[in-house]
Amino acid sequence: MSDGALSVGELEGQYPLCCKAMRILVRDGVTLNQARRTVCWQRLDLLHRSLPRQYRDPEQLYLHLKRDPALMAQAIPRF
Known about the structure:
By secondary structure, the protein is mainly α. Helices cover 63% and strands 0% of the residues. It contains 5 helices and no strands.
């Protein structure tokens, strides 16, 4: 698209990458409010608003990842 906006198809193509980015954010201990300000959150939210039956709310993904014990075991402690 010429105006810089992504199409739904392009967003769907980037979905795995956005999920991976969210996983890294959670692993690194980023708070929910900090995650909301990221590009991956905005793209996941746009997908959810465009196709709510296919894509969950990014907050659900964040909270699901936050509860994942395997992911949290990999977390790097912050000092």
